[in-house]
Amino acid sequence: MRTLFDYARLVFISPELLAIAIVVVFFAYFPEPFEFLTRQLASDVKWGLGAAALPLGMLGACYKIGTELLSPQGKRLLLLDWPDYPYLTRRVVFTLVACFFGFILVVSGLYLVAKYKLAIGTMLIAAGVSSSAAALATIALAKWRARELLRE
What we know:
The protein has 152 residues and is an all-alpha fold. It is 86% helix and 0% strand. It is built from 7 helices and no strands.
């Protein structure tokens, strides 16, 4: 039961979902900036390709930080005996999935902007980049917290 609750908390109460929700609410109340960016992206798709590279870069950074966190050496070997270590493992895997999902959102948004010139495409691009950034921030904070706890 505790594991099921942890999975639900990972998905529904996460900074990544909050980042997407903030972008969607901002789009609902202030669509003008998104419409302006849509016109700019539609005229030159290179910016959109750069935006697509952001979640992939963040995915690589999350993988590097997550590998350091889950493959402890030295004093960090204590983490392997920690009772909540499986939760940490799930969190690291979730950040990787969130970054990949952010990439999918950006690519979908690019398609909508390039093909149909829809402002919702720009909103998807912003949501994908912001959710990937939230995932990277989450895993970085977990690494910092582990260093604090282990007094490194």
